[in-house]
Amino acid sequence: MHQVTEENNSVLEVLDTVMDPEIPVLSILDLGIVRDVRVEDGKVYIAITPTYTGCPAMHLIEMEIRAAIAQLGQEAIVKTVLSPAWTTDWMREGAMKKLSQYGIAPPKRIAAMQHPVCGTPDPIACPLCASVNTEVISEFGSTACKALYRCRDCREPFDYFKCH
Ligand SMILES: [Zn+2]
Questions:
Q1: Which residues surround ligand 1, an ion (CB under 5 A)?
Q2: What separation in Å is there between the alpha carbon of 44 and the centre of ligand 1?
Q3: Distance between the two ends of the chain, CA-based, in angstroms?
Q4: Considering the domain 6-80 in this protein, what is its CATH number?
């Protein structure tokens, strides 16, 4: 984010405490959905881009952002920006590790993939034993943002955070 300045450091600090309701180990900064932060006339203008269109969590995230900024004694004006669309490439590098420790296979970096289209046949590694001998059980896991996989080696099912 080019908008990071001394002035909104404290804003960024509280935003880093706003967690994704679906993945409570990732903050909205980890996810990279915060596009712009501007402090003007005592108000904090925040632009966010939804991870997935129609993700019901976005409304909740918006309310949590307002509550977090209220802790600073400031008012947050949250704006949703749909274009350009969010991609998993915007996730912080450290977010991948947190996801995997949480038991969710992190998305493959789109930039690193050979195929420009998601749904690459590249195997998804099991977050538990790192085996790539895995199979997809359902394109929709516990939420629409995830797909359900199973590891053929350790037999454990796991969520894969779908690339986008
Ligand atoms: Zn496994």
A1: 126, 128-129, 131, 151, 153-154
A2: 44
A3: 20
A4: 3.30.300.130
